[in-house]
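Incident log, structure service

09:12 report received: a user says their structure output differs between two submissions of the same chain.
09:20 pulled the input from the user's history:
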Amino acid sequence: QLSVVESGGGSVQPGESLRLSCTTARYPLKNYDIGWFRQAPGKERQGVACITTGSGTSYYTDSVKGRFTISRDDAKNTVWLQMDSLSPEDTAIYYCAIRLYDSEVPFSFVPEHFGAWGQGTQVTVSS
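09:34 re-ran on a clean worker, output below:
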């Protein structure tokens, strides 16, 4: 079982915050680029944020820039997704995954470029 494990989801009101975590006991996440994706009912899985190994460069989809922050704590073997100023449009199941390609392959939020998907954690934003 190589899947990562997500946690931290919940139900919040618009404007509130949540912090999601992604971890595994099987292997060091620091060796991989780690991505967060989300999938709302009836919609395709969408890339949200990614952080690279080594330099820790981060990428965000436009709709979350300035509101979400991805970070990693290699000592805890955990990648975090801090989500602030949440809106109902952020409601989805959030998934974590490792990128299957190294830096020689230009980065993109293509789900097929990621693996070891977790079961996801539900985030619901409503008033």
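09:41 both user submissions now match this output. Likely a transient worker issue. Closing.
09:42 reviewer note: The longest strand covers residues 92-99. Residues 25 and 104 are 27 Å apart (CA to CA).
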